[in-house]
Amino acid sequence: MANGSTLESSDSLKAFGAALKTFRERALMTQEQLAERLDYSHASVASVELSQRTRGAP
Fold it and tell me: What are the beta bridge partners of residue 55?
């Protein structure tokens, strides 16, 4: 990633991402609709569902 960021994933992030996707789909919402409702970017919602997060270099 740019600016020295790394991609991280953990079991808890995977579980949260899977739960978010399940509840979003049960609500019949697209990632874009959820992002708009939460005032987040579509990329942020997609990253959470994929259990990815960026962390800046130390």
Answer: 6
